[in-house]
Design goal:
Two copies of one chain form a homodimer. By secondary structure, chain A is α+β, with helices and mostly antiparallel strands. In chain A, 56% of the residues lie in helices and 12% in strands. Among the domains of chain A are: 8-141, Butyryl-Coa Dehydrogenase, subunit A, domain 1 (Orthogonal Bundle); 160-283, Butyryl-CoA Dehydrogenase, subunit A, domain 2, CATH 2.40.110; 455-589. Chain A has helices at 8-18, 35-53, 55-63, 79-88, 107-141, 144-156, 284-320, 344-376, 380-415, 418-421, 427-434, 444-455, 458-477, 485-511, 513-548, 554-569, 573-582; strands at residues 66-67, 73-74, 159-164, 180-183, 188-199, 208-217, 228-233, 235-237, 243-246, 249-254, 265-278. The longest helix of chain A is centred in the middle third of the chain and has 37 residues, at 284-320. Chains A, B: One of its GO terms (molecular function) is oxidoreductase activity, acting on the CH-CH group of donors.
Chain lengths: 596, 596
């Protein structure tokens, strides 16, 4: 049975060396996050994940969830106790608003912790995982009363949250949703309808479940302009704010799924359940998108987290399994064979995994820092820039990290050979769990369309132009740094291709919208590759500096070698993506539906 | 619940139009395969797969196999009856040697049938699937007595066959195998040891199971030079050739796997089982490779077959599921939304699937034809050439078709959105089943090493040079065909890159063997892409001819459109593969094992 070690050394490398987070220590919340405190929290969090969540991962996969005749859901053995430990340890409150009981620590710290939660037990992590986003939506869109009532208990984890969008006939296309809301005359509404694929929709782990539900008020306009957001608690809070009367919402079924068996994916039936409007009527989608964006970043993180676990599994396997001899002569001459890590093609897969998890970690932590700066930076310019980045890069975090993360897990399985296909080794579970990340919270195709259809053009293309300027500045600022040159050249060349693709999109996408759709996924991947080239440039730069300063920590040489591998083995894909972008929609759309 | 339709129209297109198989009707066995007979067999076989095997696919996945305390294995409900129908229908004897009761029909016909078997029920197909290869090995390496005893019953399917190579400590590296054989003095041997991952190792579907087992005769040289092949029947045939005394071989456990649950993957314990030597002592590996090569081609076919089923599922879903509107205006204005096939990114995935299954089908049928010509062609030149192709292309069929086939199934799942992740829609089973094809019968990395390490240099590089000459001839012979030009240019350019990569390999691979290993997988993919470019060139050519002849069959226009999509959207990957080949081993191997 393989094991998992919290990647704290690498997280510290990103936070301290690459992002130099101590430079922000004058910002609210950041001042509490001294290097010592960050370290202590990561260490403590890592232990919790290694010791409590990790042993339950296989249990959750094997046992799954069961629906009882009364609509209650039984979760895997040990999940409830682990959830109690999570909330008692204050882990759900890490970066939440202190006004409602949160610890107000930076988001990047919360993200670093969540990476480890997901890596050790993704299905478990989804129970508390959606609560943060739901609380965030209430924080942004709820009334003071709603905030006072719900936020403290959601932040503490006593109550959990869910997101109810999908219905049987509508997922991506929310304009078709039918769940209806009828005013009761007292400010509340009767909510009726069916929602499907509701993660953590019903379970006994928290004392109350706070459903955020999209519904249509009677007589509202058709389409997305008539959608309102409601808060529908499982138990209606009594006058003291404690769980009271059972509300008219019930789990009507659990999905049988390919993976994440430990999480209850529910059909939720609303039968005149009492709901409270969040924000204004017909303006619910905007608030739900606060939650949706949080969730998308969380899904991107899942791509990274499962890839990290897979990398640890396959690395251990590659060092341990002996089979065949190195092509360049025995490396383990006293044994009957060499460990398979000597074989170049095994090494190729390991290096691809290493490239991904290290760049992915830097990228997600950098993104989380932007989330902090968007709200907490002292100057408006920084706040605007970070906000722009968050909007622009959310689809890339979600889709690129899950496409590549899934691919990375699959490579990890491949290294295991036949063992990888058996349940015993655990990695096939990771692959099954990871497969959903390309789908939920908006399929990766929907992310690509969001990127080319909305995010590019935002604010007169300000975000993308800011991004390009930042790449250019990094290259210009480091000009003359001989050892960094391959990284600067690689970044500049890839960014130039992205810019070319962007120009093509602006011109040809307006000519024929299908061109934008046809280009979208390759464009997103070219964008992700550019982000990774930037991350590897930054990681290489700081590693060179540390070595020049005399550090003999082996991590820096390892980063440089991995970065060079990235330049040689990942960047060649940029041309292929550009060629596919520029291929346009014509051949893609040439056939009629009947001709297929 | 989706359905499956036998792709007979497309098989006919390849056989009749592209390969023009009637030109071979003067060859032994081929004369029986008139166009009418081929059609009738495909139609009948397609019905059997659609009606008998397909309904059992989900059953097999859900029920799996169970080991009884006595070592017998219970297979899913209906499997035994389906197997009886298969053998009673004569399907296992299709292309087998008439001397032993086979029908002597061409291999391509058997392959076309097997595609449908695998597409409708891969786990079932593996029970009879390995028998053919085992019979082939006995045919090549067995004594007359062994052939008389085993072949008729294996060809009829009364008895089935297995392949026993892997042991717990050795899979790829057979030199380490420990199963031992002790001569009994009467020409038989006592076989003792443990074999694992034996597909269809134990089951009640056939009356006897004929295990082909690699073992080491006492005192044999170490390593691969001391490996012998034995035939070890579950029941020792009596003097009448009927199953007699139970032999000392027993199933000791079943693997819990990610997929192919309907197939029994067995731990086989040999405890002084009686075995008969096949061929000579210490020369068993060569004969086993006859079986292994058959199995590798079969696995490549699995990649195609599952991709075809996935394509049918996702195409039906994309036409049926309505969600959102076309970017260029409503296509289903009377409905609440358009079918998702209107969205370019969905179309992208469908076209990628279509490109793959159609080129993959042409490629596998062409390969099967080479297998026929290798043995049956009238002139030695053709026999030599076909034999060369079989040797050269087996690793490409196995690895390229499974890498791309798995990717194709995954795209099919993605088109389903959230439904794809649920068991209900069946496509997640295809993905789980498909994942093993990248691993067994030699991982795809092992295939790549076989290609660059053995197949390239074979016979003074005769096979690869013949292949290059054939590509050049196709381009030259069709020069001036204006409409075909993009296909000729695409093939010529891709072939030129493959040739460049080949030259690099020859030079740098000899300088440092790790360079060959580091390049191997990208080289194999570049090779596969070249094969596909050739197939699309041939398919486009014949489609243009048919249209010029006045055919209004819509398949020809569809082929041309799909081929153009291939040129635009697949060929750009060639440069990336070449760049990765030329990157060499240095950065890949830069880190020590400890630095990971």
């Amino acid at each position: 049975m393989p094991s998992y070690r919290a990647p704290i050394r690498d997280q510290r490398f990103v936070l301290n060396d690459v992002l130099n987070i101590q430079q922000y220590s004058n910002l609210p919340g950041f001042s509490d996050a001294s290097a010592d405190i960050v370290d202590a929290i990561l260490e403590e969090g890592g232990k919790f994940c290694e010791n409590v969540l990790y042993p339950l991962n296989k249990v959750g996969d094997h046992e799954g969830c069961r629906l009882q005749p009364d609509g209650e859901v039984v979760v895997p053995n040990g999940f409830k106790e682990a959830y109690d430990q999570l909330t008692e340890g204050g882990w759900t409150a890490l970066s939440a608003d202190p006004e409602y009981g949160g610890q107000g620590l930076p988001h990047y710290l919360n993200l670093a912790f969540n990476e480890m939660v997901t890596a050790t037990n993704m299905a478990f992590g989804m129970y508390p995982g959606l609560t943060g986003g739901a609380a965030q939506a209430l924080h942004v869109g709820g009334s003071d009363e709603q905030k006072q009532l719900y936020l403290p208990k959601m932040i503490s984890g006593e109550w959990s949250g869910t997101m109810n969008l999908t219905e049987p006939h509508c997922g991506t296309d929310l304009g078709m949703l039918r769940t209806k809301a009828v005013p009761n005359g007292d400010g509340t509404y009767k909510i009726s309808g069916q929602k499907i694929w509701i993660s953590a929709g019903e379970h006994p782990m928290s004392q109350n479940i706070i459903h955020l539900v999209l519904a249509r008020v009677e007589g509202a306009p058709a389409g997305v302009k008539g959608i309102s957001l409601f808060v529908v608690p499982k138990f209606i809070p009594d006058e003291n704010g404690n769980p009271g009367k059972r509300n008219g919402v019930k789990c009507g079924g659990l999905e049988e799924k390919m993976g994440i068996h430990g999480n209850a994916t529910c059909v939720m039936n609303y039968d005149e359940a009492t709901g409270w409007l969040v924000g204004e009527e017909n303006k619910g989608l905007r608030i739900m998108f606060v939650m949706m964006n949080e969730a998308r970043l969380g899904v991107g993180l899942q791509g990274l987290a499962l890839a990290e676990t897979a990398y640890q599994y396959s690395l251990a396997f590659a060092k341990d399994r002996i089979q065949g001899r190195s092509l360049t002569g025995p490396k383990n001459p006293d044994g009957p064979a060499d460990p398979i890590i000597v074989h170049p093609d095994v090494r190729r897969m390991l290096m691809d995994q290493k490239v991904f998890v290290e760049a992915g970690r830097a990228f997600t932590l950098w993104t989380a820092l932007q989330g902090d700066l968007e709200h907490k930076a002292a100057d408006e310019e920084t706040r605007t820039k970070s906000g722009d980045y968050m909007a622009l890069l959310t689809p890339i975090v979600k889709a690129y990290l899950t496409d590549k993360g899934y691919d990375s897990v699959s490579k990890g399985l491949q290294i295991h050979g036949g063992s990888g296909f058996t349940r015993e080794w655990g990695i096939e579970q990771l692959l099954r769990d990871a497969r959903i990340t390309l789908i939920y919270e908006g399929t990766n195709g929907v992310q690509a369309l969001d990127l080319v259809g909305r995010k590019l053009a935002m604010n007169g293309m300000r975000p993308i132009n800011t991004f390009f300027a930042e790449m250019d500045a990094f290259v210009a600022d480091n000009k003359g740094n001989k050892e960094l040159e391959p990284f600067l050249d690689g970044l500049a060349a890839t960014k130039a291709k992205l810019q070319k693709a962007t120009n093509w999109l602006v011109e040809k996408g307006l000519e024929n919208f299908d061109n934008a759709g046809a280009a979208s996924t390759d464009y997103l991947h070219l964008f992700g590759l550019t982000c990774f080239a930037w991350m590897w440039g930054r990681m290489a730069k700081v590693s060179l500096e540390k070595i020049a300063e005399g550090s003999d920590d082996p991590i820096y040489a390892s980063k440089l070698a991995t970065g060079h591998y990235f330049l040689q083995r990942w960047l060649p894909d940029a041309d292929a993506h550009l060629a596919k972008v520029e291929a346009g929609a014509d051949t893609m759309m040439a056939l009629t539906a009947e001709q297929f």
